[in-house]
Design brief:
This protein has 251 residues and is an alpha+beta fold. 33% of the residues lie in helices and 13% in strands.
Length: 251
Amino acid sequence: MIVRVCQNCNKDFLSSVHNTKFCSRECHGVSYRKAHPRVNKDTCPSRSRIFESGQILNCAVCNRQFRARSNSAGTCSKACWTKQNLKRMKSLRTSRAKSKTCPVCGQTFVSNYGIAKCCSVNCSHIYQYRHFRVLVLQKYGNKCCRCGFSDERALQVDHVNGDGWKRRQENRGYSVAYYRDEVLPDTEGHFQLLCANCNWIKRVENKEHPRLRGERRLIENNGEHDEEKNFENTPRFGRENRQPQNRFGSH
């Protein structure tokens, strides 16, 4: 414990903290009020108008007279305040608006945000797809790994194991997130870059085509048909197999 002198009442007091200046909260409050006196509303130069209790003002939105409760009141209700705030935000956006050119469709548009690059959501998806396609082509050498064809218009990302149709069923088709999260970070060699001709030749040779997938299944099952995946046993819903129905929906 250290003996100290209060800076407000000049009394001695014991304190365990080395930077204590006051003996109690009352002394601290009195000292704070002396150092920070309250500002008089009538003499403060920062206030342009003096507020009187119950003063009648005109609303800035609907121009209707109302009895104000404070000096900062400018609207008569919360709805008028919301309209005024929206109008102020709209003026701020128009002041920050810039004219830009969409890199996808080439149209000129006005953007209120600095990070906007495209004019619409569709153009934004196309722009992201092109961006990640360039990254994928650069990762795999910008050429076909079989014949060396280098025209990027005919280059395709191929699944080495031929399980692309399974991945499409799991991921419900390809998207920007699929190439960003699976193709780019792949380090185990599940993907390769082929041209269109080599990709179709590989599909036929390895029986990856949907029409040849049945023959491949027969070879894997030693010529035995898979009853669960045999499409001949599934019911057909063509016109020739429809049964007549009456007005009440029964056969």
